């Protein structure tokens, strides 16, 4: 069995808010140094300061995952501070909600650029560190809409479904290098994104309560639910789990 590095270093994208923030906090509690990448560097810095205040190691970097150059520069800063990166969580994402016939090519391209191509860039730029270490963990945060499809979200669901295919292909290609690659498709997690959707009436007139009534476990998910699954997937014990879709959705998709 390949030994994992003594000091693990993670990058979590989109970690100033919601699910990514929950994941960054959890990985720091697990003893992993975390680079928080986000468009909102002020919020990311305040999240990193809180993690440091709680005894963890964290730094914030302003990165738009649609920009390969910004990712490259951000990764370099994390390496200079903490060392080679052996854990990557691709969480940054943007949703879209529009009738298919009204989705503009620009809007299609934007969602693909952030959700799918951003994940491609991050994986391609971090994998050399993992190959060198002979150990690595990648977790891609996709969406439960990839199980079910979702009307008015064809661009979003297509980008997230691409992340699932990318996950499976990388798992096969890099398994022999000691690297696992899995995806967590969250379903109905209470985050700022979900609250924005509620505000736009996307859960129906009953709002979040209506969505909860369609959720077998009878509550909305929390960022901590995704973080717990992610914590397992990046652990040493998860070395035999790769190429998998680990749904965390309260039973909404089975
Ligand atoms: P959120 O609360 O909106 O957090 C997303 C974070 O990503 C925000 O801090 C956002 O920054 C950042 N971000 C957006 N675009 C970025 C970019 N181009 N580069 C860097 N950072 C960027 O959303 P969430 O609900 O936690 O969602 C996290 C992930 O889970 C997303 O990929 C989402 O698609 C997926 N997901 C969520 C749910 C759910 O129920 N919440 C369900 C399925 C999938 P700004 O706020 O500055 O834009």
TrEMBL record:
Residues annotated as domain Ketoreductase: 8-187
SUPFAM superfamilies named among the record's database cross-references: NAD(P)-binding Rossmann-fold domains
GO BP field: monocarboxylic acid metabolic process
Alphabetical list of Pfam families matching this protein: adh_short_C2 (PF13561)
Keyword Zinc: no
GO molecular function, one term: oxidoreductase activity
Keywords assigned: Oxidoreductase
Source domain of life: Bacteria
Family matches, as InterPro entries: KR_dom, NAD(P)-bd_dom_sf, Sc_DH/Rdtase_CS, SDR, SDR_fam
Family: Belongs to the short-chain dehydrogenases/reductases (SDR) family.
Protein name (database record): Short-chain dehydrogenase
Originating organism: Parafrankia colletiae
